[in-house]
Amino acid sequence: MQFGIFSVGDVTTDPTTGRTPTEAERIKAMVAIAQKAEEVGLDVFAMGEHHNRPFVPSSPTTMLGYIAGRTDNITLSTSTTLITTNDPVKIAEDFAMLQHLADGRVDLMLGRGNTGPVYPWFGKDIRDGIPLAIENYALLHRLWREDVVNWEGKFRTPLQSFTSTPRPLDDVPPFVWHGSIRSPEIAEQAAYYGDGFFANHIFWPTDHFKRLIDLYRRRYEHYGHGSADQAIVGLGGQVFLRKNSQDAVREFRPYFDNAPVYGHGPSLEDFTEQTPLTVGSPEQVIEKTLTFREHFGDYQRQLFLVDHAGLPLKTVLEQLDLLGEEVIPVLRKEFAARRPAHVPDAPTHDSLLAAKTMAEVSA
């Protein structure tokens, strides 16, 4: 099972000091966080894609390429790549290039995004969100698997005898996760292609995401990719840790109360009770995270949000130390002990290349 972190890249005023980082400071902080994640033994660093303030990650492959040159082992991913407003040809070429630079340590999560104004900024209509996601991914899937593509659809100009460059590393496309907060059509899409399904699992109660994941698992089996419990599932999560739970609650409360996303809404206590947010000791984070398996079954990737709402870089790096030293080793052991042998690991470039080689030998 893979453990990692994902960043939304918000530029938010620290409510305890009144200081707002510059965009340059926030961008460089994200790089430092990714390097720290590798240092403490995490498996994945993922970042979102946003084109509106207060967020800075408008070009994930640029940042991930930079991080690739400063890391050796960690998988570099996205927590959203906008399949609706990006050209699938550009996605195909950008991520293939990143694959080569990172020696295969790359996958990506496709999503529609949750910011309405972005659609017209890129010449799209938000009412076409689902059709755009379906058509654009159908093209992206082909671009990575066919050397020459002839294609015509509704939302972009036709392609005639087109070859995207560079080709995927080792002729193995990056593994794709389809992320969704609320759309069964996206769970269906992930199941159809045999791709991964990632449930954000941050802001809404567990029962909501359980319905989406159950649908994905059933349809994954329906399409013949394996049994339902072999489907490739990822979950988000959100934590704030201190050695002592009272210290964690006291320190995190002003950040929670003023966060752009959920500030001035439910109380911290209500939110931690009703959602996966855990604010407390390492033992409390371990205990709550282990309950995710009870709701969703065995899954392959767990990402935590740790760096938003104005938290200073020093605090985020301390969070990563606690995760790497006291939380992740226990979670690895406990999840591994519970997982049946027939449930697969999270796909990596090496495992996908091995499967491809075996299929070619058997053919």
N-end to C-end Cα span: 30 Å
Order of helices and strands: EHEHEEHEHHEEEHEHEEHHEHEHH
In round numbers, the mean pLDDT is 94
Strand composition percent = 5-15%
Rg to the nearest angstrom?
Answer: 20 Å
Keywords:
single chain, 363 residues, alpha/beta, nine-stranded parallel sheet, two-stranded antiparallel ribbon, 12 helices, 13 strands, 14% strand
In short:
The chain has 363 residues and is of the alpha/beta class.
Can you walk through the features of this model?
Helix 1 packs parallel to helix 11. A 9-stranded parallel β-sheet has the order 3-2-1-13-10-9-8-5-4. It has a two-stranded antiparallel sheet with strand order 6-7. The model has no long low-confidence stretch (mean pLDDT 94). The two termini are 30 Å apart. The chain is α/β, with parallel strands linked by helices and 363 residues long. Strand 8, helix 6 and strand 9 form a beta-alpha-beta unit. It is 45% helix and 14% strand.
Per-chain topology:
Elements: E1 2-7, H1 23-39, E2 44-47, H2 60-68, E3 75-78, E4 81-82, H3 88-101, E5 107-111, H4 118-121, H5 129-143, E6 149-151, E7 159-162, E8 175-180, H6 184-193, E9 196-199, H7 206-222, E10 233-235, E11 239-241, H8 245-258, H9 268-274, E12 278-280, H10 282-296, E13 301-304, H11 313-338, H12 349-362
Parallel strand pairs: 1-2, 1-13, 2-3, 4-5, 5-8, 8-9, 9-10, 10-13, 11-12
Antiparallel strand pairs: 6-7
